[in-house]
Amino acid sequence: MIDETDLDLIAALQTAPRASFDVLARVLGSSARTVTRRYTRLVDDGAMRVICEIDWSLLAEGMPATVWIGAEPGRAPKVAQALAARADTPFVSLASGAADVFCMLHGPTRADTTRSLTTELPAMSGVRTIRTEWMLRHLTSTAAWRLPRLTPDQIAALAGQETTPSAARPSGTPLSGLERDTVAVLRDDARTPFSTIARTLGITESRARRTVAALLQSGLLRPRVEVDPRDLGYAVEAVLGIGCRPGAVKRLAASLADHPATRFLALTAAASVFTYGGVFRDEEHLADFLTGGFGGSEEVTSLECSLQLEVLKRYWTTRP
């Protein structure tokens, strides 16, 4: 069970994923021993992970596609399980609304993604219909989402513990061998100490520190807390297709990106300008959002909502 103290710790880690236990304890008014024990329990129980979200440019060629699948009656769970077992699906869920199964698909190359969408997925047992929408631009991600639990003073105290992206790497610049190895170490545990990174890669601790700092400053790595929103009190998770006039895209994008319910937002090459992912306390909370509960809602020309009934795979990891 995740209690109130655990929620405070998760909120602090969302703000500063790599902060030391001493710093977290001081900000939360607890002891380092208590914070360490609670963190270890959450991780060991599988309730939380602190991972590094990797920029899409390092994972595959081009942008991912969102796929809305209509399944034959009674076959949706099997279709979702088959999709979750694929190496090119970062997210898979059972859904209601626009489709029975929703997933994101991102192959190593554009050709791989195209082949999967046009040949492999249509041939899957139980698949009846497929609708594909290609993403054009990633506007915000789960790494930026926060639990609204910390005070302004607590947030300020943690702000200095994290490296803020400040030096975007020129597009197409390849990673060095050391950078690739560092990404591999941090991907599943963003809190890996510099000493462990140095020992694992056979380099000095100061070099490990410089390499990690450069990757974080470039924005290619974004440490984040991975936890099921339902465990945090958000019972409803939804994916929306949102349309608007071309002249309103920038204003609406800024408003949606700043909304506290937003966990994912992308520009999409489809009838809907945006693909939006958000979490809500309950159906009433979602209803408030859909009926004008965000700035710029008067600019919306179309709205399609799908509830995520069960998430089978989240950020490339299949859920137990």
Mean pLDDT rating: 94
Net shape: globular
Structural class: alpha+beta
Strand order of the largest sheet: 2-4-3-10-7-9-8-5
Beta strand count = 11
> Kindly, what is the distance between the CA atoms of the first and last residues, rounded to a whole number of angstroms?
17 Å
Radius of gyration: 20 Å
Report on the architecture of this protein.
This protein is an alpha+beta fold and about 325 residues long. Helix content is about 35%, strand content about 25%. It is built from twelve helices and eleven strands. It has helices at about 5-15, 20-30, 30-45, 55-60, 75-85, 110-120, 150-160, 175-185, 195-200, 205-220, 250-260, 285-290; strands at about 50-55, 65-70, 90-95, 100-105, 125-140, 220-225, 235-245, 260-270, 275-280, 300-315, 315-320. An eight-stranded antiparallel barrel has the order 2-4-3-10-7-9-8-5, surrounded by four helices. It has a two-stranded antiparallel ribbon with strand order 1-6. A hairpin with a 4-residue loop joins strand 8 and strand 9. Helix 2 crosses helix 3 (about 30-45), helix 8 crosses helix 10 and helix 9 (about 195-200) packs across helix 10. It starts with a helix and ends with a strand. The mean pLDDT is about 95.
